[in-house]
Amino acid sequence: MSENSKNKVKIKKISRTFVKDEAYNLLAQRIINGELKPCERLRVQELSDDLGISRTPVREALLQLESEGLVMTKANRWTIVAPINPCEAKDIYPIIYSLEELALIEAFDKIDEKFIEKIQDINEDISYFHRKKDQLKTIKKDNEFHDAFIELSGNAEIKPIIDKLKRRVERMEIYFFETGDENFTTYKEHMNIINALKEKNLDKARKFLVENWKSTIHTINKLSKDLEFENIEDQIK
Question: Which residue ranges does the record assign to the HTH gntR-type domain (predicted)?
């Protein structure tokens, strides 16, 4: 055996699980940001070619997305991006705000001036990106605001559950909140939470946190009344 052969470093191959996770993350993001539209057909071969990977991890990623409500399949007929369903808001948001309220309770004793300054800065960013009409960055910053309480709580079980649910509502928010300023109350609602924390009033902070989420449900319900949601078969592109 040559000296070069002895010294050759063996490169570890990328595992199939890793490829599936990458495919899942890329497809989930494209669905959430609207690049893949509601009811758009998802063809395994096309996605495989687009992502530069084999069909197996694409199929596995689609199965995971289906389990999370982002993809729908009709056996032997089609696989599509799940349609926007405003009725999901009343089921999903209460779970999210209940878990966030728990995180706030667990984090409350750790909240200091530095933390309050951090969430104030995030809230100013929310206002800035909203004025710039950058919906994706506005929602991203809104998620950062709420995630701050979860991270501070130190409860590792809350975030994975909320992240999974937020993928579904984030898509809904992007779809519905491309609207005028009359529907944007997030900044003021966050300031109510911040001011309650400055007062060290947990009950008020909890109340305003829940109201913030309920306001979103109300807005989605209000906007969805003006839209007609057709039969899925009629919407498939």
Answer: 17-84
Domain boundary among 60, 82, 104: 82
* Residues 187-214, mean pLDDT to the nearest whole number: 97
Domain interval for residue 32: 19-82
**pLDDT 10s digits, 144-156:** 999 999 999 999 9
Residue with token string 């994706």: 136
Residue 3 lies in a domain: no
Domain count, the chain: 2
Tell me what pLDDT residue 16 has.
57
Q: What pLDDT sits at residue 176?
A: 72
